[in-house]
Amino acid sequence: MEELSLKTFIFYGFALITIASAFAVVSVRNIVHAAFALMVTLFGVAGLYVFLQADFLAATQVIVYVGGILVLILFGVMMTSGRLEMRIHIQRGQLLLGGGISLALLMLLLTVIANTPKWENLTDDGLTLKPTTERIGKLILEDKFLLPFEVASVLLLVALIGAALISRKEIRD
Amino acid sequence: MTLQHYLVISAILFSLGIFAVLTRKNAISILMGIELILNSCNLNFVAFSRFVSIPVDPENIDGQIIAIFGIVLAAAEAAVFLAIILAIYREFGSIRPDEVDTLKG
Amino acid sequence: MVVPLISIILLSPLVAFAIFALSGLAKRSFPRQDLLSTAAMLIALVCSFFLLRDVVPDPEPLAVDWVSIGEITISMGFYLDSVTVIMLIVVTLVSSLVHIFSIGYMHGDPRYPRFFAYLSLFSFSMLFLVVSDNLLGIYIGWELVGLCSYLLIGFWFEKDSAANACKKAFLTTRVGDIGMFIGMMMLFKKFNTFSLYDGTQDGIFTLAAAQLTTGDMVWLSIAGILIFCGAIGKSAQVPLHTWLPDAMEGPTPVSALIHAATMVAAGVYLTARMFPILTVSSSLVIAYVGGITAIVAATIAIVRFDIKRVLAYSTVSQLGYMMLAIGAGSYVAGLFHLTTHAFFKALLFLGSGSVIHAFHAMHSHSHDEAHADDEAHEHDDHSLVHEHGSEIPPDQDMRNMGGLRRKMPITFITMLIATLSISGVPFVFSGFWSKDKILAGVLGRAMEWNSIHHYILFGIALLAACITAFYMFRLIFMTFFGEPRNQEMHNMAHESPWVMTAPLIILAVLSFPVVNHLWFNKNYVIPPEQHHLAAPQHAYVSPDTKTGDANFGFSFFGVSDAQAADEAGGKNGEKADEAYHIHKRAHDIAMALSIIVAGLGILLSWLFYHRRRFSAESVATTFRPVYNLFWHKYYFDEFYDGVLVALTVWKSRLFARFDLSVIDGIVNGVSTVTRRVFAAFIGFFDNSVVDGIVNRVAEVTWAAGGRIRRIQTGAIQTYLFVVIGGIVLIILIFRAL
User: Fold this and answer.
1) Rg of chain A over CA atoms, in angstroms?
2) Which of A131, A155, B101, C256 has the fewest Cβ atoms within 10 angstroms?
3) Dihedral sign, CA of C89, C90, C93, C95?
4) DSSP character for A115?
5) Residue in B with minimal Cα distance to C711
6) Is the distance from CB of C355 to CB of C361 less than 8 angstroms?
7) Buried b (16+ CB within 10 A) or exposed e, C297-312
8) In terms of Cα–Cα distance, which of C274, C195, C200, C197 is closest to C230?
9) How confident is the model at residue C88 (pLDDT cuts 50, 70, 90)?
10) Which parts of chain A fold into alpha helices (H)?
11) Domain B3-92 fold
12) Which residue of A has its CA nearest to C723?
């Protein structure tokens, strides 16, 4: 176990917040609470991005997820759930089976992570990156990711129109 | 900090997401589980970029770009998902996935 | 110049016909089809004369590849030598004159334009046949000629007799054509080409010559005889001659064309063309067929009263002569006789047409009336026998004629010239020279080879010559001399208009050998290689060759024959010299004998039919069986009717009975057995086994479906459980492995 520096301490803090709030997302009965727990999780991930020196991505995570998707989710909650629907029903058998599968999956992943030698001993010590925003902008807007970027914009447009079409009230003639 | 720290966090988030998708009796909770899964994936991309690509070539941040696209994907997915949920709600008066079983054999 | 000329010759009649055919599509007929067709024919005639100037002794084959099937390439092309050109001139000349004559003769016919269109097609077919350089082309022309003769003989198809005659002509010639086709295919199988002579070593002639020198000639003999079968049908040789006299049912100009230039000439031309492949044995068969035809047809002609039938049998007889000449090796003489005969026989037919036309006034030009007459008779229509005394149309019956020479002087004189020519009156008529050459050729061959066959054939030929002179003068005496037998008809008779007499005069002039001489004076030669090819088995030398006394008609043939002799002499000069002397002697003997028999025939005819010194009736009574034989035409038609047709009908009935009893019985029996045994068994099998299986399968499926459907909960999370659990399981399994 390495030295418990401030940076390490903060990292574990973020990791703990992320995992704990994610656990809350899947376990609390009130869906609004769950949504807020998800917000904490997303913030935690953004913090981890900062630790990975992905500054632009961290900001995007906060803006898009917290500012966009989460609000969308809350709107969905509001529009579909009456007060009675706020509580999430859970069946015991299903809970056990789902937990088993999830746990098995987690064990599997952890085994893989622990037993892959070429992932060992990779550290980020001594590497300080320049801010990434400029490079990302160039990559997306004039370099090799221009085409995926345009495709993504088309995808968003399609999703926009599709969502509008699906969710509008059907006009029966 | 090592790569494995991030991978472990990511794995835990992923498993929790799967758990939510499998067990929650509310469509919106399922959506939250999916968001968790997507986040864990993005975290993986960024972590691998940071620990594998960048030590070789500091200019190479392709993993982050992929993560950005992942976010875009999540946004689109969330929009469509919620639209479908609204439509289902109008049709069935419920968004409990076990009550929407028109395809039951 | 050759190719454009020959194209014009072929195309002009074809275009004339095409205009008629297309005008039919346009539903409006070309206004002057008669002039169009005639002009087309005259153009072809002029071009033929130009071609005569241009033809070269050693012609280049003008062939293009037509069809390629695998290794085999069939070419189409023209082959022009002196024989071709002479045939072209004969065909176009006679055809032109027939066209002109028809303008007068067919005037007022309801299908007047169609007649000329058919004539054009007929001429085109014959011209195509003549210029073709390969057997396939010849065969195409051959069948087209057959088709046209069918159309024209049956031109007045309202008459039952005409309809039957054209069917008979078509079917009878078809019998021979089958033989010809088989022969063609034998040659093709053996030589892998249809081309006769293509300038290289691949033509049939060259290959056949090689075959002749190496031996193994049996199949070549068979092929030659089979091809000759086609000529038997087309040129009306015994035993397939019966269609030609019946073909008189067609309009008289058609008869002239068929007899002189196109149909029957095709057979003789083909046989002469194929001469290089004829072996000695197939030649002998040809000679015998020709000789028998000559004598049989001549004897039949003696007792006919229908003026056209007399001429028809005369043609058959003369065709036999030509075949005899070819079979005896004098194919040049045969072709020469073909050309001279073409003119005087066309003249005779057109003359008889003129006579009939004169009497036609009584019938007010109406063929409808003849038609009505015919229907009134209503004779058995399945009978192929047409000529009985009572059935002769009155305007064709010589017993109604007599004394016409004053009424129709031009017709009389021209027909007399033709008669003198065909009878072989010496020295000033072309017929004498050609016939003399045939007789000389046969006798020369007999003396050279000391062959009893050829002596017999020579005797037959002499006898036929005598009979020919007899019956031809009988025709003249009965028609033009003596007192009118039917005063009413005689009063109506008149000379024909100029469009009809002009061709008669032209043809009369052509019956003198001087004209032939003018034509043939140039040294046209049959290409030497053909003689070379013909040489090995027919080391034949003309009697006239080396003396150079190529007087009158056959000078050009003399030259060509001289070359043949040289070719033969190249190998064995002494032998050729000896052969030459034999032929020279034979020629003298033959000439003397032919003059004697011709004189004898004319004298007898004069005694019988002009001086009435003897009575034909009393002779007929005395030799009643012989007379009956002649009168019934050797019972050929009766034989065909009684035996072949009856056999066919009997065979058909037999087959019908076989069908009804055996085949139907088998079928019915099988159906009964099927119904009783198999159907019952299969029905049981179907009901129990097949249906059982089907029903069990359905029940199992139904039951299984009822249970398995519960897997499908419709709840999405159930599916997710399965999917994710499955993935985990798979990964675990693979990690464990």
Assistant:
1) 21
2) A131
3) negative
4) T
5) B105
6) no
7) bbbbbbbbbbbbbbbb
8) C274
9) confident
10) 6-27, 31-51, 55-60, 70-80, 92-114, 133-141, 146-167
11) Helix Hairpins (1.10.287)
12) A101
Distance CA C320, CA C328 (A): 12
List, for residues C482-492, the tens digit of each pLDDT value: 777 777 777 77
- What residues of chain A lie within 8 A of the CB of B23, using their CB? 26, 90-91, 94-95, 98-99
pLDDT category of residue C357 using cuts at 50, 70 and 90? confident
Give residue A41's pLDDT: 93
DSSP A87: B
pLDDT at C443 over 90: no
Of residues C76, C98, C100, C105, the one with CA closest to residue C6: C76
Is the per-residue pLDDT at B58 higher than 50? Answer: yes
- Paired tokens of A43: 């913030």
The residue written with tokens 């046989």 in the block is C271
d(C-alpha B57, C-alpha B60), whole Å: 5
Which of A97, A98, A108 is nearest residue C732 as measured by Cβ atoms?
A: A108
Instruction: Tell me which chain A residues have a C-beta less than 8 angstroms from the C-beta of C732.
Output: 104, 108
Report chain A residues whose CB lies below 8 A from the CB of B85: 76, 80
pLDDT at C364: 41
CB pairs under 8 A between B and C: 34
Burial grade of C315 (CB within 10 A; 0-12, 13-18, 19 or more): buried
Domain residue ranges of chain B, discontinuous segments joined by + = 3-92
Residue B102 three-state SS: coil
d(CA C102, CA A3): 133
Q: What is the predicted ipTM?
A: 0.89
Inter-chain touch B80–A97, beta carbons under 8 Å: no
Chain-chain contact of C720 with B101 (C-beta, under 8 angstroms) = no
Token pair belonging to C85:
């050109």
Instruction: Tell me the residues of chain A between 86 and 115 that have a Cβ less than 8 Å away from chain C.
Output: 94, 97-98, 101, 104-105, 108, 111
C728: closest CA of chain A, how far (Å): 6
